[in-house]
Amino acid sequence: MGQGLNTKVAQVCAYVLGVDVQSVSIKPYYSLISPNVCPTGGSGGSECAVYATKIACEEIMRRLAPLKKENPKASWKELITLAKAQKINLNSSYMFTPSYDGKSYTIYGVTAVEVEVDILTGQHLILRADILEDTGVSLSPEVDIGQIEGAYVMGLGLYTSEELQYEDVTGRLLTNRTWNYKIPGAKDIPIDFRIEMRKNAPN
To answer: Aldehyde oxidase/xanthine dehydrogenase second molybdopterin binding domain location, by residue (predicted)?
Structure first.
């Protein structure tokens, strides 16, 4: 998925466990080990997976808390070795349930665009676009900036070049291929593309 789900899960897991992100490995998803997944859209899969990861890791940390208290200077490997010797269960899982764990909410943003238009031909050039997005506390800012860029370009295509045209009598879709349905290309995006996420604004 383009939302960087694996990266975000690894980052949150490392943060909760207090280890380096390089110590976390994400296994490829398949339905034998995780058959019940939530649908995703608008980066929603990341929110669900990260929340479930956070809860599962917090449970492991609760089990390790007595050991950490007894061995405050122990490294992660030393702590896990002690846990294994004492038969502390280091497996944990959690399933995100939208109706219980979270509610839908709206994300706000604002965009200012500087455009140069040839009034004779309609040819236009986007000189600059500035976007301010209220992302709350971003799980992975670089990944989320990519998501914001993608959303902007989708909107750009919708309002400038993409048009669904249908045959009047039969209703057959006429713009059914790239020859006559034009999505934005690399030269259609803003020359100067600036994105900022609100700082210190949890939602």
So the answer is: 1-190
